[in-house]
Amino acid sequence: MDVIVGGGVVGLSIAWRLARAGRPVTVVDPAPGRGASYAAAGMLAPVSEVTYTEVPLLRLGVASLRRWPGFAAELADDAGLEPGGLDLRSDGTLDVAFGADDMAVLDEMAAYLDKLGLPVERLTGRECRRLEPMLAPSVRGGLLAPGDAWVDPRRVTAALLAALERRAVPVVRERAAGLLHDGDGAVVGVRLETGGELRAERVVLAAGAWSTELAGVPVRPVKGQIMRLRSPQPLLGRCVRGAVHGASVYLVPRGDGELVVGATQEEMGFDTRVTAGGLYELLRDARELVPGVTELEVSDVVAGLRPGTPDNLPLIGPSGTQGLVYATGHHRGGVLLAPLTTAVLMGEESELAALCAPGRFRDFS
Ligand code: GLY
Asked: Where are the chain's structural domains?
């Protein structure tokens, strides 16, 4: 049996893929679907989230985005949902600019992405507003990444739990307090907080920011505060983002009128408090992009912990300790990278697997 420690979008996806392949599997998590996946906006946006130094991450993201439509269709079917039940949408991301400096940054980014074979469309302010009439009049231009997509992570985790239930996969709602080792140091299961034990041929550590507590993985919590607003009609037709006051803010619309505004990036350890300052900054910056956001009802505020690694790439694959596999450290891309993570663990992506191999950090442990 495989034990998956962690019931976020990554851990549940792995459990689901293993169960579909006929492997006995058990998930351990005190509150499945309520960690970072619950806070996440669900941007499947490898192109608009790219930075100049992160081509390997871009490659992983593009490969995983390609897998998302098939993954969503299979999952919806397995969970007994309508085909569109996960609210997967692929109308692209519009990155907007206000001043000459921002415009120059977008121009450079467009040239860079073009060189990588990922074409984007350069738009004037008027063209941006034609696409998104609620944008501020001060928007001077933008970059449309037409292939970027997004999904509702809360629906994804609910669907994964439903699919696991239909396949009779046990989900143990407890914290894994430690790993069990045999006399040779191999991992042979997990110890539960209440004193019980689960024996396993393989333990897959997918506990996000908490992975470090169990196995000393080089993963740290990166706090993100995020806000959900609500309007009777969707305010935007696609994801909109932009840099305001030096920080990036994004707005992700859902079909039911929800608008997700995210997210802070804070190095605060295991702190999940929602603060007045965090919410103020999100709203202040979102209002610069789309002034109408201040009219909307606030429906939810939450803070989650992204599992950051020293190189921002995830750790997926054998840990170096027999019986222990890592599927953690997805930082800002857990939802995007979930299909790819399962593919790497199922041996379907050998070339990309090398980019995420945990062995690159062996000196840390
Ligand atoms: N992927 C967006 C974020 O982590 O805020």
From this structure: 1-89+150-219+309-365
